[in-house]
């Protein structure tokens, strides 16, 4: 009996020892925490010249497809590609049969209208007869005006013929017969990051550059600032008006647009300090917030070689930006600031 009691005592002591060891192991695990070694720099605002350079493609200020509202045979096209025309010049003559028939009918109605007006004044005709004749006259005149515009197609503005899609005698089926475009004035649409929306105003001057004319600039003016922001690209659009009396610039040319918005104070950081969210276009940085990593979303502004402007309401002068080792960080992780190259994460015992 004494031997049995001794064995049971030993088993109980062994079990208590194992429990104590287990608790010690958990304590040891909980007493260590991951610490990241990083490099940081103090942020301070600097003055920069706010110049935005954006690429765009030129367009004729006015471009119109010459496409009559009547289908039928094209009797004659008066111009060729490259022809210069003035407003009111004849471009295309469509089949005239319908127009001539309607014109003859309108002539007869005009005579009839004069007759019923005379009878109406003498009281020899009813108002109903007069109204019916007047309605027929007005409808035929409207049809004649429509047929005249679409049978004898004229240039609505001065420009050059950029495209010709038919020849004399072909059946017109709806595709534009000609394309007329303006050359002495051009336009362009550019997309600008939304952060600059308060700074861009109608009437501001811009400068354009083309690789075709190295070292030269061409002036333009912001004609329209569109009032909405694209939620996908976070940009807004402006329309430029570009005088082109010399016609050295042409529709379709690729140009760079420089927009000067004056000098401003802003925060500029090393480009590699800004991280990009995988699978999205969202950008962010890490700050040293009381010894812990704080993730802050930012928008990118102007770039200066290996430096980039960042915009965020959460960043201010004096903040400590992580510029080395940031790729390993997550929000809330403890930081150890070091000088020189960064090292691998270390374990710190509490």
Q: How much of the sequence is in beta strands?
A: 35-45%
Largest sheet: 11 strands, antiparallel
DSSP summary, beta strand count: 23
Count of alpha and pi helical runs: 3
Any idea what the radius of gyration is? 39 Å
Mean pLDDT: 86
Structural class: alpha+beta
- Unreliable stretches, pLDDT < 50, 5 or more residues? 18-31, 341-350
**Helix-strand topology string:** HEEEEEEEHHEEEEEEEEEEEEEEEE
How much helix is in the residues?
Answer: 10-25%
Shape: elongated
State the end-to-end distance.
49 Å
Brief summary of the model shown:
With 350 residues, the chain is of the alpha+beta class. Helix content is 23%, strand content 41%.
Structural summary, described in words:
23% of the residues lie in helices and 41% in strands. It has 350 residues and is of the alpha+beta class. α2 packs antiparallel against α3 (127-151). It is elongated, with a radius of gyration of 39 Å.
Key traits:
350 residues; alpha+beta; four-stranded mixed sheet; elongated; disordered C terminus
Summarize the SSE layout with pairings.
Elements: H1 2-30, E1 32-42, E2 46-57, E3 59-60, E4 63-66, E5 72-77, E6 84-85, E7 90-94, H2 97-122, H3 127-151, E8 152-154, E9 159-164, E10 171-172, E11 178-181, E12 185-193, E13 205-209, E14 218-225, E15 235-243, E16 254-270, E17 275-276, E18 283-289, E19 292-304, E20 307-311, E21 320-324, E22 334-337, E23 346-349
Parallel strand pairs: 1-22
Antiparallel strand pairs: 1-21, 1-23, 2-16, 3-12, 4-11, 5-7, 5-10, 6-9, 7-8, 9-11, 12-15, 13-14, 13-16, 14-15, 16-20, 17-18, 18-19, 19-20
Helix pairs in contact: 2-3
């Amino acid at each position: 009996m004494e031997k049995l009691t001794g064995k049971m005592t030993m088993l109980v002591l062994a079990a208590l020892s194992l429990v104590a060891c287990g608790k010690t192991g958990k304590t040891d695990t909980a007493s260590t925490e991951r610490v990241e070694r990083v490099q940081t720099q103090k942020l301070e605002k600097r003055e920069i010249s706010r110049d935005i350079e954006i690429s765009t493609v030129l367009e004729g200020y006015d471009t119109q497809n010459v496409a009559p509202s009547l289908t039928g045979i094209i009797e004659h096209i008066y111009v060729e590609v490259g022809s210069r025309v003035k407003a009111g010049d004849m471009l295309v003559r469509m089949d005239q049969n319908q127009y001539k028939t309607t014109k003859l009918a309108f002539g007869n109605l005009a005579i009839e209208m004069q007759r019923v007006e005379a009878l109406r004044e003498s009281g020899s005709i009813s108002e109903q007869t007069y109204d019916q004749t007047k309605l027929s006259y007005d409808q035929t005149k409207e049809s004649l005006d429509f047929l005249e515009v679409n049978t004898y197609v004229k240039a609505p503005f001065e420009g050059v013929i950029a495209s010709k899609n038919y020849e004399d005698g072909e059946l017109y089926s709806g595709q534009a017969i000609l394309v007329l475009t303006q050359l002495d004035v051009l336009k362009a649409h550019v997309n600008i990051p939304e952060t600059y929306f308060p700074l861009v105003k109608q009437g501001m001057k811009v400068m354009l550059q083309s690789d075709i004319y190295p070292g030269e600039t061409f002036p333009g003016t912001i004609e329209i600032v569109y009032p909405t922001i694209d939620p996908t690209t976070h940009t807004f659009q402006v329309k430029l008006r570009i005088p082109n009396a010399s016609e050295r610039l042409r529709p379709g040319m690729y140009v760079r647009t420089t927009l000067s918005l004056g000098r401003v104070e802003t925060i500029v950081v090393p480009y590699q300090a800004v991280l990009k969210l995988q699978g999205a276009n969202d950008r962010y940085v890490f700050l040293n917030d009381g010894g812990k990593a704080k993730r802050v979303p930012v928008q990118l502004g102007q770039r200066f070689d290996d430096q980039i402007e960042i915009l965020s309401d959460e960043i201010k002068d004096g903040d400590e930006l992580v510029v080395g080792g940031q790729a390993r960080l997550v929000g809330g992780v403890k930081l150890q600031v070091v000088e020189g190259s960064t090292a691998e994460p270390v374990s710190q015992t509490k």
